[in-house]
Amino acid sequence: MGTWHNYLKAAGTPPEWPYPIKYGEETEVETDVLVLGGGIAGCWAAISAARTGVKVALFEKGDVRRSGAGGPGCDHWCNVPANPLSRVDPDEWAEEMVNTLGDYSNGIGIQIQCRENYDTLLEMEQMGGKIRDTDDEFVGVEGRDPETKFMISPRYGQGAGLSPLPGWGKPGYNPPETRRNVVIRIWGSTFKPTLKKECKRLGVQVFDRVMATSLLNENGKQGARVVGATGINARTGEFIIARAKATIISTSGNGQLWNIDMEHGGYSYMYSRNENGDGTVMAWKAGASLTMLEGSRPFGIASGLKHKWYTGGGDASYENVPIVDANNVKLELVTQGWDDGGAMNSPVLLKAVRDGVESGKFELPMFGDFAGMKPEESNATWNLMLNEESTTKIMVKTMTEGGFDPTRDQIMNYSFIEMQSPPQYHEPARGGGIMIDWDLKTTVDGLYAAGTSLFSPQDHSFAAATGRYAGRKAAAYAKTVELGQVCREQIAKEKERVLAPALRTEGIEWKELHNGLCRVMQYYVSQYKTERLFNLALEEIARIEENAVPQLYALDPHKLMRSLESLNAIEAAKIIIYAMKERRFTSPKLAVNRLDYPEPDEEELKKYLVLHQEDGEVKYERIPIRFWGNMKEQYEAHNQDYTGVYKG
C-alpha cells in the first residue's frame, strides 16, 4: 500500500508510539452516573450530578480542559432573560424563541435554557469563570452596565427571538430603549479549564482520551435499560467497561458526513473535528428514538471551503462592524451581525448586495471597517468578542502579531469573491438528534442526553444549561435504582468490533474510508434527492461496509479512534438516509427537497418524524409538533424542588 507509514517502514524508520500499547487489556469502572462526552454539556452534567453526592465518571476522547466545540472559547451567552438587566420574562422569551425558530425547534431545551441559564452563568462565575468586565477594560462600550459590569450585547439576539425587528441595518435601528438585553458578552475562553478543575475538585473520575464506543443494554437486549457503556483509550488502546446506574450522552451531533477535506481545516462546519455522530449512533444501537434527521442544506458556516465573514465561524462576533466596499462606501443593509435577517447569509440581503455589485453601486472587494468604529467599540470587538470565540481567536493572535490595529485598519470580507460551497457539499439542516422528555431522559430507561446531542439544539449556553439540568435529573434517577446486569456477550462483540482495525497490519486507513463515504453523500444525498438516489446511496454504503470496512486498519490507538469515528459516520449517514426516504414531500421549513415528491404534505408537516430500532429493524412514528405542551407549566411541574435565581 502506498501510505506514508509503509514508506517509513521500507526506509527502516517507522514512527514510534510514545505510550504503552494495551490492546486487549480491560479496565472495569463502576459509578452512579456515567457521562459520555466532556464538552460543555458533559462537564456541566458531571458537575451537577456530583453536587448531589453521587459518584460520577466522565469519558472524553480529548482532554476535558479544552475539548469540544466550546473548548477554545465562546463570546456570547445567549438567551439569558433572567439576568437583572433583562426586559423580558424568561417564560415569555422561551415562547418567543420557539415561535421564532419555528415548529421543529426544541421547546424543552429552550425552556430549560431560558429558565436556568442565568443560574448557570452565576455558577460559572463562582467556579472562577469570567463573566463581567471586572477589570474595567471596556468602559464606555455600548451595552456595558456600570453597576453589574455585565457586557450586554447591544444588537445580537435583541429582536424577536433570532429574527430582526423592522428596520434592521438602517440608522437608528433597535435603539437602547427597545432592546431585550438577553445576550451577555463573556470571557468564554476561561470556562472550559474552570469546568475541568471543578470536575476534579468534586471527585469526578475523569477519563481523558477515552472514546465511548457503545452503550450496554441490560442483559444485552436492544431497547432495554442502559446499564453502562464501553470505551477505548486513544493513547493506549485499553478497553474500558463502565457499569452505571444512569448514563448521559453529551457527545454532540453529526458532522463530517459530506466533507472530510483535511486540507481545508479538517472539519465540515464550525464544530469540533471530533463530532462524527458518535452519540447518535450509540443511542440508535441501544434502541433510543431519534428525530429531525431528514433535512440537509448547503454549508452555512466555516466549511473550510469558504470564509464566513473574514476567517471565523460566523457573523455574531462581528456584530457591530460596518461593512464598506472597495471605495469605502458603507453597506447600510449589512452593518450588523448574525441574525437571519441581518447578516450576509440572509437570502434577501444576499440578493440586495449582489444586485448592488452587478449594477456598479458597490465595488468588490468588501471590508470590515474597524477603523470606522469608535475606538472603544473596535477594541471590544477585536479583543473581547473575536478573542474569546473559538474559531477566531487564532485569527486575532496571528493578525495582531502581524501588526493589525483595530483602531486603524480594515479586514477584507471575502463574501462574493471566493468560491462558495458547491451544492453537493451539505450538512444536517436543523440538528437531528436524540428525542427526550422533560427530564431530558431518552426513550430508553437509564439513558439521558444533553447539549447538541439533543434534537434541534442551540448554542453554547444551551449546552451548558441542558447539561447542568440532565446531570441533576440523572443523579436523582440513579439514587432510586441498583446497578443493572451487563451482558458479557454484548461486551465481547463490541470489543472485537472496536479492536479489529488495530489487529490488521495493512489495508486502508480511516481517511480513505471516510472520504469514500463523503463522496457517496455528495453524489446521492445532496442538492437533488429522489428515492432512486437514496437507494443508490444505500447500495454504495453497503459496498463500503462489505469491501472496505474489513480492510480498515489503524497503526496506533489514535488512528483507531479516528477509524471508529469513521465507522460511526457510516452508520449516521444510513440513519439520515432512512429518515430522508420516509419524508415523501418537499418543505423548505424542514430543508426537505424531494424531486420525486415536489409538493408539501400539510398533515405530515404537523409532526416530527421519529425513528428507532427494534431487534435491528427500523421503526417509524409521527409525534405532533410541540408535543411538550405548555412550556412554563411543564417545566414547573418537573422542577418543583429546583431553587435558583429565577423565582417567576
What this model shows, in words?
It is a single chain. With 648 residues, the chain is α+β, with helices and mostly antiparallel strands. Among the domains are: 316-413, no CATH class; 504-624, Fumarate reductase/succinate dehydrogenase flavoprotein-like, C-terminal domain (Methane Monooxygenase Hydroxylase, Chain G, domain 1). The chain is 33% helix and 14% strand. The chain contains 15 helices and 19 strands. Strands 1, 2, 6, 7, 8, 9 and 17 form a seven-stranded mixed beta sheet that branches. A four-stranded antiparallel beta sheet has the order 16-10-18-19. Strand 8 and strand 9 (239-249) form a beta hairpin. Helix 11 crosses helix 14 (557-582) and helix 12 packs antiparallel against helix 13.
- Kindly report the CATH topology of the domain at 504-624: Methane Monooxygenase Hydroxylase, Chain G, domain 1
What value does the Rg take, in angstroms?
24 Å
Query: In CATH terms, what is the architecture of the domain at 504-624?
Result: Up-down Bundle
Roughly how many Å apart are the termini? 66 Å
